[in-house]
Every structure is written in C-alpha cells, then in structure tokens.
UniProtKB/TrEMBL annotation, chain B:
MF terms in GO: ATP binding; ATP hydrolysis activity
Its membrane topology: Peripheral membrane protein
Region (Disordered): 1-22
Protein name (database record): ABC transporter ATP-binding protein
Highest taxon in the source lineage: Bacteria
Signal peptide: none
Organism: Streptomyces filamentosus (Streptomyces roseosporus)
GO cellular component entries: plasma membrane
Primary location group: membrane
Pfam families linked: ABC_tran, oligo_HPY
Biological-process GO terms, alphabetical: peptide transport
C-alpha cells in the first residue's frame, strides 16, 4: 500500500510536467497579444509595448519563459501574476476557488443523493414502470446540452416565475447556488442513476444474493448490505472522477449564472490571452485532480477487498 | 460399495414438538416458469419426505427439477417468472406455502438451511467470511458484533478450517475451493437447523476434497441429528451417505428406493441407464454405456412417460399414458418397503 502511494505520487511528476508544458504551448499559440489587450482599443506606442513586454519577460524565447515559470513555481511556489491587474494567480484562485467549491459540493450532493436514489429504485424494479420512467428521464437529461438546460432553468425560474435571481452575487449564499448546482449536477446525476441501476439489476441476480435470502436475512439487510456494497463499486469510480471535474469549475454553468468561480476565471483568462494566469490555474487544478483520483483509487481497495495494491 | 451407518438409527429428537411424522414432506408439488416462449413445467407433482437424521438423495440430470424443488422448499424461487400452481410443502406438519413472508424468513437459516454448489460465487466477495458467518447470529439471535465473531471462529473450527482465528477476517477469494465449501457448510450449520438442503455441494471440487467435504457433512449431520436432502448427479457420492434415493426425470420422481436396493435392482429403465453409465474397473476397455438422446424440453414434455423417446423398452402404451408412481413388490407379491417406480414395466425391469 505504502509503496503504491509512493509510486503513484512519483507518477504525478511527468503528468504534471506534461500538462503544464502543453497548456503553456497552447496558450502561446493562440492568436492575440495580452500586452496589446491591456491598452484596449486606443493602443499604445511600440516603445511602451516593448518595454512592458520586456518587464513581463514576454520577449524571451518560449522555452526560457517556460523554464523561468516552472523555476518560480517549484522554488518559490510562485504561480505567476495576472498581466491585467498584477494580482498573483494564487490570490485570483483564492477568491474564485471557495465559490467553485461551494457550487461543486452542492452539485455533488444533488447527484449523489438523487442519482443513487433513482438508480436504486430503477434497479430494484428493473423492467417495470418506475424503471422505464427513470430511463426516459435520465435519457432526456443526458441528451440536453448543459447550456440549453441552464438557459431554460434561468428563463423559467428567474424571468417567468421570479423565484430566483438571474445572477448569483459575488459572495453567494447556499440558496442562490441551488439552481446552478442543479444544472451542473444534472448530467452526472443521470449517469449515476444509470450506472447504479445497471449495477444493482445485475447483482440482484448474483448467487450471493440468493445465499443472503436463504440465510433468512430481512430484505432491508439483503439489499442494504449485500447488494449495495457490491453495486456501489463502479458508481464510486464515476463519482470520484466527477469530483475532480467539478473542482475544475464549470465554465458554461458559471457564465450562464454569472458566478465568479474557477470556471469563470478560466474563461476570462482565455479571452484575454492571459497565459500565465491560465497555466497557473490549470496547474493547481491538475494537482487537485491527481490527488482526488489517488484518493478514490485507495478507497477502492477498502470497498473491494479483491483489489490488491503492490 | 461400502456399507454406511444408518444415520436414522441415531436417537434423541432435538426439539420438543407435537408433530410426529416426517420432518419435511413435499406433496404433489408443481412448479412452472412463465417465459416468453411458453410455460416451462419444471416440477410436475413431486412427493417426498425426510425424517430427522435421515439423508434423502435426489438424483437426476440437469433440468430434471431437483434444484427447483429445493428452491421451492427454501422459498428462494424467483417469483415471477416462477409459480407454484399446486402442492404442499409441510415442515413439521405446517404448510410453508401458506405462511407469510416473515414467517418463512424466520424458518430460513434457522430451521432449514441450504448449501449451494459454487461457494465462490455464493459467498459475498466484499464481506469477510467472519462477517458473513456472524451475520446469522446477529440477525436471528440479536447477538453483538463481538460475540458473533467469537461464534464465527467456533464454527470455522467446527468445520476444521485451520487457523480459524487468524482467518476469520479473510475474504472468500483468499480461501481454497474446499475451504470455501466448508465455510458454506459452517454457515448452513450456524443455527443448528433441523434440515439442511445441499445442492450439489461437491460438484465444483476435486475428488479428494469431495470426499473430505462429504465426510464432514455426514459427520455433522450425525452429530446434530439433522435431516439432509442431498441433491446431486453423482451416483458415487450418493452411495456413501444417503439412506434413500429419489430419482427425478423431467420434473417427476421416477423411482424411489432405499439406497442399496436401488443399486442392486433398479426398477426403472432410466435408473438402470444411469447405473450402467458409471465407469467400472471390471469393464475396462469396453465401451461405456450412455443413455441416448437429450433431456426433454420442459416447454414441450413428451406425451405419456417423459422418458419414452430415450427408453430402450418403450412401447405404444408408454407414448400415450403417464405411468403413476406405484409401490414395487417382490415377484411373490411381498412388500418392498420404501420402493416405488413410475414405469409401466417395472416388473420386467426389476425382476427380468
């Protein structure tokens, strides 16, 4: 187990270097100029632009820029500064991350509770009315793109019914985030429901379920202990990767509801060609993603004793 | 064939019960499965009984309805598609088919327990064996987790699993096949039930382990004076442990007899065919007999005697009339207790 964790942590190094390099190259191959963008439509004289570029180190060759960036990051934990307002990227992320975390928690709770509930109902009544109704519902959700669903919910509940504010405030309350969290969690909710349903329906026919009934266990225990422990294993995998994805922020949902989360900052940085901000953000998100997936893999061994780490 | 101890001679009734009669009696049991292709009649009027301390072997090829009968007794048939249109299953004189689900649940595991064929898939892969064994005590006797674990270790000792204390927290996949089957047996035995149904308990095991497991089962049965229904298609296993045999074919019992009499003088052509197809040392080098044809399709059981298309002695009578299960007698008409045959020509078969 310990050796496995060490090996996984070591494996993170090439992944980390690869993703940062890739992001760095991709951002720099985008058309547009962050320094030019600073001055807006008015523009500035070439000397000022050149001086600014030199100050930010943007006149150096690309490999040097990458090297200095990585050196600062690794040695001084300096993830760079935003070009536009000179704020350190860590501060920008520090402002945005709690909001994303709040939104992600809420969305995750929704997909966990409702997804598994629907899946259990469908799985136990496989082939009957409830199962078919859930199948249609989940297929509908899977087939609607997030931006369509987001706009529909915003239109109906904010503009027509007036139940919610169309935009979320900068210091959002939990209640405000409910509608965006539903939009964000819906797709995964549908996947969780389908996955749980299939897994339950399959395990329901397993030999050990027959044994559990033959032991004279009450139905609640047969389902709750014997069936659920086995059926949740694939669902946990999916939920684990989903945590990582949710932490990365939701670009579409956040922009529909005007939430200042990680997704919003990423979208903003792309449109302003803020290379260093983008690389800094993505680097931190990659670390978050790698750590969560490691934790999920370790949780796996707890759930399924047949899995051995060596 | 070795002689066996008649387990029925062991005295001591285990529980004070007003009921005198067989422990379990199956009367005219029918089971059918409603499938898309039609109604499959898996069991068509089975009658048998088991006393305390007695071993009944139910013999038959795949699809003969032996397992389905056992599942109907346990109440673990999938219903639907399964259905029990008629019949009675009397346990200590009470019809279990008329009981509520909760009453039946309390009998399962506590009074009647079952041992399944493939112990690896029949044990829950993600729960430790100690947990699965202890569950019996926790659910039926309301024991604490700690006490149940102590009991689980005792049980594992009882079925001779070495280093029980160290292995109680292990998972099913960490045990060998024989050890797993011992755990299955321990689980069935946990609450000292009155009756154990063993559904091909040794099929998945190699021959030496088979013998060990059967010996263990017979020993524990004697110790607790339990009734045992042994479902198998292995005639060798049956000879050593059973007191009486019921041979099933296409959902019916075609012959019933005390174990050694059946081997000595079968009264049904199907039983004779089964016995002739056992490889024997004294017939080394000769071609082995096999019953021709295939087991009948349960959606379309042949008219008359279900065995008639494969029977070497079939006549027109066999194709039109279903033979009843009738008592078999000696040539001079003397009783042969416990012997019955469902063949129009049992006389020719047994005496001829």
């Amino acid at each position: 187990m310990g050796r496995y964790v060490v090996r996984r942590l070591l494996q993170m190094i090439p992944v980390f270097l690869g993703t940062t390099l890739l992001i760095f190259l991709m951002v720099h191959s985008l058309p547009g100029d962050p320094v030019l963008a600073m001055f807006g439509d008015k523009g500035a004289d070439p000397a000022t632009l050149a001086a600014k570029r030199h100050e930010l180190g943007l006149d150096k060759p690309l490999w040097q820029q990458y090297f200095f960036y990585m050196r600062d990051m690794l040695l001084h934990l300096d993830f760079g500064t935003q070009i536009r307002n000179g704020l350190p990227v860590t501060d920008v992320l520090g402002d945005a991350f709690p909001i994303t975390l709040q939104l992600a928690t809420l969305a995750f709770a929704i997909e966990l509770v409702f997804g598994i509930t629907l899946g259990v109902i469908g799985g136990l009544r496989a082939g009957r009315l409830a199962d078919n109704a859930i199948l249609i519902f989940t297929l509908l959700i899977i087939s609607i793109p997030v931006f369509v669903l987001g706009f529909i919910i915003k239109m109906v509940f904010a503009f027509n019914l007036g139940w919610i504010q169309p935009n979320v405030s900068t210091e959002p309350q939990w209640g405000e985030l409910l509608a965006p969290a539903i939009v964000l969690g819906c797709l995964s909710l549908a996947y969780v429901a389908r996955l749980t349903r299939t897994s339950m329906a399959e395990n329901l026919r397993a030999d050990y379920m027959r044994t559990a009934v033959a032991k004279g266990l009450p139905r609640r225990r047969v389902i709750g202990v014997h069936l659920m422990r086995n059926s949740m294993i694939p669902v946990i995998t999916f939920l684990g990767t989903d945590i990582g994805a949710l932490m990365g922020g939701a670009i579409v949902t956040e922009s529909i509801f005007n939430i200042k989360g990680v997704g919003g900052v990423i979208a903003e940085s792309i449109s302003r060609r803020e290379g260093s901000t983008l690389v800094g953000l993505v680097t931190i998100l990659v670390i978050v993603y790698l750590v969560t997936s490691l934790l999920i893999d370790l949780l796996y061994a707890v759930l399924d004793p047949r899995i051995r780490y060596a | 064939m070795s002689t066996i101890d008649k387990t029925a001679t062991v005295p001591a009734p285990r529980e004070n019960s007003d009921h005198n009669g067989p422990l379990l009696e199956v009367k005219d049991l029918h089971v059918e499965f409603h499938t898309r292709d039609g109604v499959a009649k898996a069991v068509n009027g089975v009658n048998y009984s088991v006393d305390a301390g007695e071993t009944l072997a139910v013999l038959g090829e795949s699809g003969s309805g032996k397992s389905v009968t056992a599942q109907a007794i346990m109440g673990i048939l999938d219903m639907p598609p399964g259905k029990i249109p008629q019949g009675e299953i009397l346990f200590r004189g009470e019809d279990m088919l008329k009981m509520s689900d909760e009453e039946r649940r309390k009998i399962r595991g506590r009074k009647i327990a079952m041992i399944f064929q493939d112990a690896l898939s029949s044990l829950n892969p993600v729960l430790s064996v100690g947990y699965q064994l202890g569950e019996m005590f926790r659910v039926h006797h309301g024991m604490s987790k700690k006490d149940a674990k102590v009991k689980a270790i005792e049980l594992m000792d009882k079925v001779k699993i070495p280093a029980a204390k160290a292995r109680v927290s292990d998972y099913p996949h960490q045990f060998s096949g024989g050890m797993r089957q011992r755990i299955m047996i321990a689980m069935a035995l946990a609450l000292e039930p009155d009756l154990i149904i063993a559904d091909e308990p040794t099929t998945a095991l190699d021959v030496t382990v088979q013998a060990q497991v059967m010996d263990l089962l017979a020993e524990l049965q004697r110790e607790y004076n339990m009734g045992l229904i042994l479902i198998t298609h292995d005639l060798g296993v049956v000879a050593d442990v059973a007191d009486k045999i019921a041979v099933m074919y296409a959902g019916r019992i075609v012959e019933q007899a005390p174990v050694h009499e059946l081997y000595a003088r079968p009264a049904h052509p199907y039983t004779r065919g089964l016995l002739d197809s056992i490889p024997r040392l004294d017939q080394k080098g000769q071609e082995l007999y096999a019953i021709k044809g295939l087991p009948p399709n349960l959606l379309k059981v042949p008219s008359g005697c279900a065995f008639n298309p494969r029977c070497p002695k079939a006549t027109d009578l066999c194709r039109t009339e279903i033979p009843a299960l009738v008592p078999v007698t000696e040539q001079d008409g003397a009783d042969l207790p416990g012997r019955k045959s469902a063949c129009h020509f049992w006389k020719e078969t047994i005496h001829g």
